[in-house]
């Protein structure tokens, strides 16, 4: 497997990278930086290579995936690459009729509302996503000592798209199932946990050095509902990949009240959005976890001086942490000036050089 501890097989080329050291809560030469959604629409070179190719089709072409994944690493000198794909790719790969509509997001043709609808979800096999294995192989060869982060959508966030049929602000259909038919809900999330685990395993076995589980919309839930109806499915995913020894990152938006539970679900690193300062987040999460975050992505529209002041605030709040990976509190927004991101990465590196 990709990243054995020194007690296991010999460490890989990425083992001593600042990113993996920070995830393991070891001392680092500088605070590592990467940006959620660093690949994609903020980069002119992305628009160029994607022109005329639908989003989901682009995810099935290994050379294109590798190129798009590498673009932000070349440009911003970030400490990790994130595999270019989407959370709905494994669902598409097992035959769910869905598409990503530009400016909208994932749209599902036949939303899952009844037990019979569960038949849309069969198991994911490595053969379904051979292009992922191929693309990760191309990437790790090219990346050398820079780690590649694999990722997947968490069961709740995937279910929110499958049950609603598309993006939602309120998740009323998903929550109606969660409250009204808890058995169907549990079976849906369990099936999604298996698909998600299989998707992550393929990425790790092909060479990904870490994985991030995106439960982007979990912030819609109260802690009691998260614990009762969601947490065990995410824990099943983390357990399924625990044996590889690669750091597991757990991220959501608006999850200030869930941070402790999201750590408890089995993460090594907990992602934090900008609503909770990192020192307070560390108190909520407790010892034994690294933190990732939490620069407000909208600040990148405010000019270099403001960006540096706010970056310093993030670093100051992180000063007492056991391990810190600098990131945004959510993804790069499409209209962000890429030069502002390059400058931010450089600022964090310079400011934290030890
Ligand atoms: O650089 C990276 O972070 C890797 C690429 C990545 C994409 N999607 C590519 C993408 C990642 C990590 C994702 C994850 C993802 N997809 C999440 C979790 C992360 C988050 O932001 O919370 C979610 C919720 C989705 C679902 C999804 N896919 C949305 C909401 C959208 C945006 C719709 C829009 O057009 O505004 C997508 C489409 C998508 N995924 C694009 C990209 C580059 C844009 C498609 C395009 O270029 O036309």
Mind explaining what this structure looks like?
- One of its GO terms (cellular component) is cytosol.
- Keywords: Cytoplasm, Decarboxylase, Lyase, Porphyrin biosynthesis.
- It is an enzyme of class 4 (lyase).
- The longest helix has 25 residues, at 182-206.
- The chain starts with 17 loop residues before the first helix and ends with a helix.
- Helix 12 (259-264) links the parallel strand 6 (248-251) and strand 7 (269-271).
- The protein has 15 helices and nine strands.
- The chain has one domain (18-348): TIM Barrel.
- Helix 7 packs across helix 8 (172-180).
- The protein is globular, with a radius of gyration of 19 Å.
- The mean pLDDT is 96.
- Helix content is 44%, strand content 11%.
- It has 354 residues and is of the alpha/beta class.
- It has helices spanning 18-23, 44-50, 55-58, 62-76, 89-93, 130-143, 155-164, 172-180, 182-206, 223-229, 231-241, 259-264, 278-285, 304-318, 338-352; strands spanning 81-82, 98-101, 105-108, 148-153, 210-214, 248-251, 269-271, 290-295, 324-328.
- The strands form two sheets. A seven-stranded parallel β-sheet has the order 1-4-5-6-7-8-9.
- The chain binds coproporphyrinogen III.
- Coproporphyrinogen III (CP3) is lined by residues 36-41, 55, 82, 84, 86-87, 100, 102-106, 151, 214, 216, 331.
- The site of coproporphyrinogen III has 21 residues, from strand 3.
């Amino acid at each position: 497997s990709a990243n054995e501890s020194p007690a296991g097989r010999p460490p890989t080329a990425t083992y001593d990278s600042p990113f993996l050291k920070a995830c393991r809560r070891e001392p680092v030469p500088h605070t590592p930086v990467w940006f959620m959604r660093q690949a994609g629409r903020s980069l002119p070179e992305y628009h160029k290579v994607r022109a005329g190719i639908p989003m989901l089709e682009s995810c099935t072409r290994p050379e294109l995936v590798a190129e798009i994944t590498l673009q932000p690493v070349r440009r911003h000198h970030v400490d990790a690459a994130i595999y270019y794909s989407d959370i709905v790719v494994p669902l598409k790969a097992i035959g769910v009729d869905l598409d990503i509509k530009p400016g909208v997001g994932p749209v599902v043709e036949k939303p899952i509302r009844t037990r019979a609808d569960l038949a849309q979800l069969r198991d994911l096999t490595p053969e379904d996503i051979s292009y992922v294995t191929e693309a990760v192989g191309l990437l790790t060869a090219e990346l050398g000592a820079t780690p590649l982060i694999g990722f997947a959508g968490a069961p709740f966030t995937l279910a929110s798209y499958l049950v609603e049929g598309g993006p939602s602000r309120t998740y009323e259909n998903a929550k109606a199932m969660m409250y009204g038919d808890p058995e169907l809900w549990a079976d849906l999330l369990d099936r999604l946990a298996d698909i998600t685990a299989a998707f992550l395993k393929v990425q790790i076995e092909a060479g990904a050095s870490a994985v991030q589980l995106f439960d982007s919309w979990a912030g819609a839930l109260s802690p009691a509902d998260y614990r009762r109806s969601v947490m065990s499915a995410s824990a099943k995913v983390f357990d399924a990949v625990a044996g590889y020894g690669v750091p597991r990152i757990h991220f959501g938006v608006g999850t200030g009240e869930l941070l402790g539970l999201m750590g408890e679900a089995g993460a090594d690193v907990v992602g934090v959005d900008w609503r909770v300062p990192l020192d307070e987040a560390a108190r909520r999460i407790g010892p034994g976890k690294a933190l990732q975050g939490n620069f407000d992505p909208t600040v990148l529209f405010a000019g270099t001086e403001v960006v540096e002041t706010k970056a310093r605030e993030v670093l100051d709040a992180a000063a007492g942490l056991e391990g810190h990976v600098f990131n945004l509190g959510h993804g790069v927004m499409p209209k962000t000036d890429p030069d502002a991101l390059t400058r931010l990465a450089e600022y964090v590196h310079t400011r934290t050089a030890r």
